[in-house]
Design a protein that fits this description.
With 238 residues, this protein is an alpha/beta fold. The protein folds into 2 domains: 125 residues, Rossmann fold, CATH 3.40.50; 96 residues, Orthogonal Bundle (Arc Repressor Mutant, subunit A). The protein is 41% helix and 21% strand. The protein has a 5-stranded parallel β-sheet with strand order 2-1-3-6-7, sandwiched between helices. Strands 8-9-10-11 form a 4-stranded antiparallel β-sheet, with no helix packed on it. Helix 2 crosses helix 6 and helix 7 packs across helix 8. It is elongated.
């Protein structure tokens, strides 16, 4: 849990009183790296200067909106996002989820509920399981705790979603993990429709983990089913 409490959280809302309440609700839960902003411009500066682990974005902001702000953030980070909005329409909710939102909270809401949902997203995204902290694949080593692929003379950063998928595959190493199970691990209850996005993430993982990404020996495709992780070199039989 201490690893989760160390994560940096950025809350963006133009309601000063609500911003204070949200920050205090997380402080009471033990979080202490909490940044706040009341505009897109201010939020962008904070994101640029810090490695933010979770964004909490109000949809309506004085100089833009949370959806567009998250689009900008996604160009440089894969950190999860929770949208806050006074609008409860299904179209807005689906639009936010379509952008890759990890949760969507409609105002008004209880502060305790907010803190619980923040914690749930962070645990789902970052919490380490009982897997080994380092995994060796061919000529490289994966440092799970620091989200790094380590080669002889180089280091490659893994994104939050890539770490989630790798952990899920490792927990079931040498066994097929279905597409649904992988999507659920990465995107939670709203995982439907993410199959193509999953393929993109797997392709990126292979580029970072495989000697020959086009002929993978560790992240193996089980056609029509999902993927499996093998630690020893194995020909792709699928």
């Amino acid at each position: 849990m201490q690893e989760i409490l160390n994560k940096k959280i950025l809350i963006v809302d133009d309601e000063t009183e609500l911003l204070g309440l949200l920050k205090n609700s997380l402080i009471r839960e033990g979080f202490y790296h909490i940044y706040t902003a009341s505009s897109c411009e201010e939020a962008s500066v904070i994101q640029h200067e810090n490695n933010i682990s979770l964004f909490v974005l109000d949809v309506n902001l004085p100089d833009g909106n949370g959806f567009d702000l998250y689009r900008d953030f996604k160009r440089v980070t894969d950190s999860p996002v929770i949208f806050l909005t006074a609008r409860g329409g299904d179209n807005d909710r689906l639009f936010g989820l379509g952008l890759g939102a990890d949760d969507y909270i409609v105002k008004p809401f209880l502060m305790k509920e907010f803190a619980l949902r923040v914690t749930a997203v962070l645990k789902r995204t970052y919490k380490t399981t009982d897997i080994e902290e380092r995994i060796v694949l061919s000529d490289r080593e994966i440092d799970i705790g620091n989200a790094l692929v380590i080669l002889a003379n180089d280091e490659i950063q893994l994104t939050a979603k890539e770490i989630i998928l790798l952990k899920k595959l490792y927990e079931n190493k040498n066994r097929i993990v279905t597409n649904d199970a992988l999507c659920f691990a990465a995107w939670g209850d709203e995982y439907y429709g993410y199959e193509n996005t999953l393929m993109v993430h797997i392709r990126r993982l292979r580029k970072k983990l495989e000697l020959e990404p086009s002929n993978p020996r560790h992240i193996i495709t089980a056609k029509g089913l999902g993927y499996k992780l093998v630690l020893r070199d194995e020909e792709n039989d699928y």
